[in-house]
Amino acid sequence: MSAWLRDETPLSPAQSDTDERRTDRPDIFRFLRQADEGRHHTAHVTCAGADWLASAAASPRSTLALWEARPAAPAVLPCGTVFDVVNVDMLFGRRMLDRLWSEGPGTGPVAVYRGRMLLFAAPGTAQRLPSLLHWEEWGDAVPPPLCHGTGDAVTIPPLTPLEPAGPRWVVAPDTRHPWLPGPEVMLWACVRAVRAASAADVRISIFPPADQDAKVYDVSRRR
Q1: 184 with 86: CB under 8 angstroms?
Q2: Do residues 106 and 164 touch, judged by C-beta distance below 8 A?
Q3: Among the four 41, 76, 88, 146, which has the fewest Cβ within 10 Å?
Q4: Residue 200 — pLDDT band, cuts 50, 70, 90?
């Protein structure tokens, strides 16, 4: 299970300096800061999580200012540097989450947007995962994911969704340095989800096949 361990490498001096410089960022989301105190909301973005999301933008400070003005609006963020995104069918995505949380390492941030599930992954995953699926025995059975990496951008849900059934965070970012699964973990989740679905489709009967010429009687009205 060593592959599942989060990266707890101490921050470099450069990273520490960057965090210190962030103290002059806009005073955003007072209500989010209040929600952070003594409570944990899996589906609610924290201030630290908002900082992490904004760090993917070309101008993090401008992005934070925009979110301060419109916290209920979706946003578009580039992929490839801070995170990649694996975009999958909703049903298959739920099966992946089941495997990741019940048998695997868990997940990074996960969002739902317009009927698709967005799994945030480590940079480089978008380039590597399709190749791994191509060589995997069960790869052909996996619904082809949309992998967003360098040069791509994704629309993320609002930080404070207005409608529970609309775009929303399933696992919201809540730290400045969240753990993100790599391509091998995403491949594992895809394969386990497919195998679980295949096993569920198998039905074993203890009765012999029915005689095709036998008469069938409707007994639903018997008294």
Answers
A1: no
A2: no
A3: 76
A4: low
